[in-house]
């Protein structure tokens, strides 16, 4: 077992065994703070993907028939192991993804909470009895949908895997996870916890490789009955087409561009602190992060000043350093995208309040940046930036700002800060999003559904809906045996 400050060797997990990939291609894992190569590993091969498909197919019936209480016990043990290993996992995640250690450690504990929730919810996958005639019984039963293919991103390499493996196993479905090649250790940690907790061979599988090749291979197989993706809109549309060709059910979480409406009746300093803390968490690489800030004219300047003070206290550095409060972006692609988006905003006369720098040298660092007077058609406002830029604009009319907040193709989360119950209820009703946070920036909870509308996808993870996504319903209509003189019921 590696020490807490050692990055692990990267392997695939197929049919109950950790194995090296056998493809001709390979992957480098880079430390985003230094550009140092921390691991090199071969991709999964086509034959190994076939083995994984055979494994989930073979294990589907036995795992379906495993009593829910037994499945629950396995999930609880996996959650316990994650918590016990949190420090070691946090170091690996910080090394491969860049987030500060305290954020990585929190991610591990939240992941364990999700799995614990699924452990209990999997015991409550109730059907129902429908009242009927005395000689018949009408029932609705639940069944696992079948083998699952899941695809997860690099920004939360532990949590996004836990959100798929936990409910799938709780519902009785075996799973193949294709996790991000750039952050493999986080995904390995989750799968290792399930394996060490006693998951039977074939029930949990983990592969890394060329994304397009793996998705085509897995989704073209008749074995897979459910697809779950956390990723970009572009990838979501591609995988949706593949799934549709093979009648595969889907859950899609495809990112967001969340508006924040700040009314003038709030504690300005406290709300600014909450908004900025949430915005710059994980260097802005959070799909449900507050992203577009609409601040009432009456408190705009004080809000901006409070955010600027907060940003002045952020310590930029390697995630593994004890005093770091914001790490680098996860990869060089994000730096280039943020650079172009920032230049576009400034070209459109946005005002730079603070930050804006992109330090040279090794590492994917971008200074936390605050902009005002932003053109709402600019990239930093209209698109999902996935970086540490906080654009703030003014408003003075509630009807107008609701319209502006909804003027996006995304619909994952929205946020409202007000002391008016009437305004809170109105905005919660009228904002077009799968989740609305009122006087909070936290909309991700193990017991609450997590998902979006419009381009942000469909379906939910977490909460009862998260387990239900892996179940199908069956209507059973049962009559007494036919006999002479007995009529026919319709």
From TrEMBL:
Q: Keyword annotations for this protein?
A: Oxidoreductase
User: The Aldehyde dehydrogenase domain covers which part of the protein?
Assistant: 18-476
Tell me the active site. Answer: 253
Carries keyword Oxidoreductase?
A: yes
User: What top-tier enzyme class does this entry carry?
Assistant: oxidoreductase
Family matches, as InterPro entries: Ald_DH/histidinol_DH, Ald_DH_C, Ald_DH_CS_GLU, Ald_DH_N, Aldehyde_DH_dom, Aldehyde_DH_Superfamily
This entry's Enzyme Commission designation comes to 1.2.1.-
Annotated GO MF terms: oxidoreductase activity
Assigned protein family: Belongs to the aldehyde dehydrogenase family.
Could you tell me what this protein is called?
NAD-dependent succinate-semialdehyde dehydrogenase
The organism named in the record is: Nocardia fusca
| Taxonomic lineage | Bacteria, Bacillati, Actinomycetota, Actinomycetes, Mycobacteriales
